[in-house]
Amino acid sequence: MNKPFIPQLVYFEPNALDYPLGKELKEKFEKMGIETRFTTSHNQIRDLPGETDAQKYRIAKSTLVVGIRKTLKFDTSKPSAEYAIPLATGCMGHCHYCYLQTTMGSKPYIRTYVNVEEIFEAADRYIEERAPEITRFEAACTSDIVGIDHLTHSLKRAIEHIGQTELGRLRFVTKFHFVDHLLDAKHNGNTRFRFSINADYVIKNFEPGTSPLDKRIEAAAKVARAGYPLGFIVAPIYLHDGWEEGYRHMFERLDEELPQDARDDITFEFIQHRFTKPAKKVIEKNYPKTKLELDEEKRRYKWGKYGIGKYIYQKDEEDEIKSHLYGYMEKYFPNAKLEYFT
Ligand code: SF4
């Protein structure tokens, strides 16, 4: 994806127009000649176009719903943050393995919430409750928020809001490179900007509708130069022909682009490819031609919560992945904080 996301169709909850952002978005989309409709609730869109489930799914992923976040009780987001800050839900990307397919079920459209000030006030109350402890908010639990922020700037406002607090911290992750409008945000070092990166093969085959590796790394370098603490998620680490070479290339590109002084306060999260039975079912429905290897026989079973276990790589495969990736980390990012998830 080389151009920022533009929705094909936009729904508004009528009350969203009582908020400045709602009004602004309505005018903006009308000027752009995009069809706008009204819906009574962002939780229920009844007349989405499309004949088949597959068509409806594709259309939903390019549909934006502008609504009001009524529940101002934030979900927890342990262990990496205390709370999920709800700025948006859904994503225009088509990553075959994306967990939103299972969590969002029949509502894959993208929702953005215009009552940002109320959301920030709720965040402030959470910060106050935990004082003098730090309170961390994750903004990308249910969306790739950077991918739509060029339209709304709510993430930018959240960065600046949390930047003004003493005890609040913000984090999010993205697969998009449209970061320019965030570079001058007054983040005050309180936001960790993370990019999800991978070997080219994985991006090309399993992440349609997202930015290419080179663009993500260029964007990460810009963000680092703008003084944000930086992080990377390498997920899913996926075994494929030439994977050693693919991940080596990824680290070499990072090494070429990233300023040296961004490497002391930097985090890496490695997450191996895994899947559950319900996820496999929904992936095969949404992306029937995927090359993603989802063969239970080849994997090791790891028991999980609520009886839904994960199929993960065999122990020897895991050891090999670790030995390669840890080698690169030692070479290029010896001071990084590193976490590994199976
Ligand atoms: S970019 Fe992230 S949220 Fe969007 S489809 Fe891909 S994995 Fe899912």
From TrEMBL:
<dbReference type="GO" id="GO:0042601">
    <property type="term" value="C:endospore-forming forespore"/>
</dbReference>
<keyword id="KW-0234">DNA repair</keyword>
<dbReference type="GO" id="GO:0006281">
    <property type="term" value="P:DNA repair"/>
</dbReference>
<keyword id="KW-0227">DNA damage</keyword>
<keyword id="KW-0238">DNA-binding</keyword>
<comment type="similarity">
    <text>Belongs to the radical SAM superfamily. SPL family.</text>
</comment>
<dbReference type="Pfam" id="PF20903">
    <property type="entry name" value="SPL"/>
</dbReference>
<keyword id="KW-0949">S-adenosyl-L-methionine</keyword>
<dbReference type="InterPro" id="IPR058240">
    <property type="entry name" value="rSAM_sf"/>
</dbReference>
<keyword id="KW-0004">4Fe-4S</keyword>
<dbReference type="InterPro" id="IPR007197">
    <property type="entry name" value="rSAM"/>
</dbReference>
<dbReference type="GO" id="GO:0030435">
    <property type="term" value="P:sporulation resulting in formation of a cellular spore"/>
</dbReference>
<keyword id="KW-0408">Iron</keyword>
<dbReference type="GO" id="GO:0046872">
    <property type="term" value="F:metal ion binding"/>
</dbReference>
<dbReference type="GO" id="GO:1904047">
    <property type="term" value="F:S-adenosyl-L-methionine binding"/>
</dbReference>
<comment type="function">
    <text>Involved in repair of UV radiation-induced DNA damage during spore germination. Can repair thymine dimer 5-thyminyl-5,6-dihydrothymine (known as spore photoproduct (SP)) by in situ monomerization of SP to two thymines.</text>
</comment>
<dbReference type="GO" id="GO:0003677">
    <property type="term" value="F:DNA binding"/>
</dbReference>
<protein>
    <recommendedName>
        <fullName>Spore photoproduct lyase</fullName>
        <ecNumber>4.1.99.14</ecNumber>
    </recommendedName>
</protein>
<dbReference type="GO" id="GO:0051539">
    <property type="term" value="F:4 iron, 4 sulfur cluster binding"/>
</dbReference>
<dbReference type="InterPro" id="IPR034560">
    <property type="entry name" value="SPL_Bacilli"/>
</dbReference>
<keyword id="KW-0479">Metal-binding</keyword>
<keyword id="KW-0456">Lyase</keyword>
<dbReference type="GO" id="GO:0003913">
    <property type="term" value="F:DNA photolyase activity"/>
</dbReference>
<dbReference type="InterPro" id="IPR023897">
    <property type="entry name" value="SPL_firmicutes"/>
</dbReference>
<comment type="subunit">
    <text>Monomer or homodimer.</text>
</comment>
<feature type="domain" description="Radical SAM core">
    <location>
        <begin position="77"/>
        <end position="305"/>
    </location>
</feature>
<dbReference type="InterPro" id="IPR049539">
    <property type="entry name" value="SPL"/>
</dbReference>
<keyword id="KW-0749">Sporulation</keyword>
<keyword id="KW-0411">Iron-sulfur</keyword>
